[in-house]
């Protein structure tokens, strides 16, 4: 059963008075537990696809189902709620809240969710901080950390609500290749450990090589789906 | 619930951290908000205190709680005088009817009739007084009395008169030196000089006893008028049922002398008025110098005004010299010489000059010397308790009316003794007021009409009209100065007897109340119900057809009330301007801050923060800073007020303030209304200024988190 179902989705942007198509009839099924990479050149529509899957944007045509919910039918509030409970985000530039400590940044989604006791939250946050190898920095502010450390915090934050799906838009683009590799390793480890679905965009072949599947996209259209080895699958197939 | 509490905690945490993170912005917003709060608290508290002071002053001195006057009047009632003089009020024809109706209105405790106007008072001058005494002695001598005391008194008064003539001649000699003896009045001046020369000559005085009356008349008719002193001054008075007045206005008290006996004619002169207008100028200036030195910390050495007063006192010595006969002058000089450390043989004028031309070092000693040695020998005030004074005013019939009233004492208002606004007011009986006011009652108008008809005259002469109108009412026109000179002689004459009768007559309460009044003060049982009672009074008046206009004390106080209204307007306008300015500044700062955090807000929205969370986050931030600094500002305001109180309050530097403060200084208290308004304003500013950026922030989409580069 797929966690994400993208059905003939198109997305247009208005650039002044001209309509710029970002996606043109993309169909894609993503199963639970996948570690999927979306690849393609800049401007190909990677980020747009991720935004639609991440419920931060809605399609101009077609349907996006996340956890079997049709996002085009949900209110803004319900979408926010869906993001909060079902999706974790990892950003290219980390996007931590500067005035909060490492611990508080990771705790933040749990506070938005509510429901957990202080003790439960603490256990969950510390468990994740240890898992991403940054437990000793729990009191630091983001500004006091290196890029790699910050992205580790971001990974922990994305996972703290135990989402079914984690989206990462170019998670290694702002990191040197070695640090990028460790972040991908970390994500892979989390994918294996909890079975969390990861979808990440990249144009770094080394990063792609870690994926369980690679979806190639160009000019707003899906051009192929393949295993890292190279077997191309039919577009829109499984 | 735990979740919500956690969310609030994270909101507060983010707010505080953000405030701490951008200290400069927080400091600027905090300073603005704090200052606004400080101004609001100080302003509101001061205004509240002034309001209270004014309430005390107006309600306790003249206003009561409500005032009624004839609704047909052109001008509004202005108890303390307007900018254009006294307001012209249509009279209330019969006060007793008004009283009967209004006393039935619930919550009305007292109805006090009033008539406020200005009048001229003939004050006489020292020459008049000296000559009056001399004439008294002359009359007794001519009547054949010959006892030793009388002869001594006669000689002393004669010497005094001679001394005055000598001093006047010296004055005039100085004036002649600079005067133009060729001009229009040259003839007049030459004749004056001749009179003075004649009166100052030894011959005149050695011949005095041969024909006392003839000599006296030369002095009275030709010399007395040469004195440069003013012979009259203006007086503001309220004619009222004096008894009721004192019951209605608890601040009123008789400072010196006694209360006007019930039902009698008489006047209680305003104490402050007496100080300013009736007191010997030199003494008044000494008092003022003392006050400035002690209360304002001024020094003669470096204050121009004090120096001017000292100089004027040097020039005013003659006023004192004129009052002393040679014997007293000699004795005073003998006592002053050692005290002032003057050389033996120094004469009184030089000694007085030494006394008045004082420096800071000697001021206190000289002040004491004046009141110990000089004051007891002279008349300090132009009017004393027990005197009968002549008051003149233009009546409504167009002619000058005048009445003689006995001064029973001086009136002052407790707490606001030195206020020129309340303290200028003298209190007079209702009957004298009506004589002065001279209003044509309907009966009198009818009477005139019948006289006109019977005589067939189209125009009445002034004498006829006056006789018709006031023949029995006691118009004592034209007796002013003369009477002071020879009061007892006048009292023997026909009209004088009438005056004596009037002064001795006891009027019934009915007589006092049945007649004209200009306005009436209403004192209420429960002042808190003022508005309701005001409506009831208006209704009662309308139903009874009295045609009255009802105003509250604040409106009735006229210019004074308007001043407070103006203060209030100024305060509210400045608070409002401050409000708008701080709104703009804080709003701007918050928008800038928000724009810097677009990505952070987008991230929060992406990871699941609802719009209302973002809205709350921004609002909490501004409200936090607003309340924090607002409270700090309010606390500073409270502390400032405490400091002001501890250092003696805000001094009342002029009459108006004295009246508004209901005392020499305003001791402002922190009004709860002030704090409430301040915090309300602060809250409103922070919410309103935070609202726009918060609404902007609410519209930040999660896409921004992804799209925006660092």
Terminal Cα span of chain A = 12 Å
- Give the rounded overall mean pLDDT of chain A: 88
Order of helices and strands of chain A: EEEHEEHEHHHEHEHEEE
- Indicate the proportion of strand residues of chain A: 25-35%
The percent range for helix content of chain B is 55-70%
Low-confidence stretches of chain A at least 5 residues in length (pLDDT < 50)? Answer: 231-238
Order of the strands making up the biggest sheet of chain B: 2-3-8-5-7-6
Largest interface: A-B, 38 and 34 residues
The major beta sheet of chain A can be summarized as: 7 strands, mixed
For the secondary structure, the number of strands of chain B is: 12
Total strands of chain A: 11
Total helices of chain A: the number is 7
Q: What gross morphology of chain A would you assign?
A: globular
State the helix count of chain B: 32
Mean pLDDT of chain B: 81
Oligomer: heterodimer
Structure description:
The complex is a heterodimer of chains A (238) and B (710). Chain A has 238 residues and is an alpha/beta fold. Helices cover 34% and strands 29% of the residues of chain A. Chain A has 7 helices and 11 strands. In chain A, the strands form 2 sheets. Chain A has a 7-stranded mixed β-sheet, with helices on both faces. In chain A, helix 6 links the parallel strand 7 and strand 8. Chain A is globular, with a radius of gyration of 18 Å. Chain A starts with a strand and ends in a 5-residue tail after the last strand. The C terminus of chain A is likely disordered. Chain B has 710 residues and is an alpha+beta fold. Chain B has 32 helices and 12 strands. In chain B, the strands form 2 sheets. Chain B has a 6-stranded mixed barrel, surrounded by 5 helices. Chain B has a two-stranded antiparallel sheet with strand order 11-12. Chain B starts with a helix and ends with a helix. About 4% of the residues of chain B have low confidence.
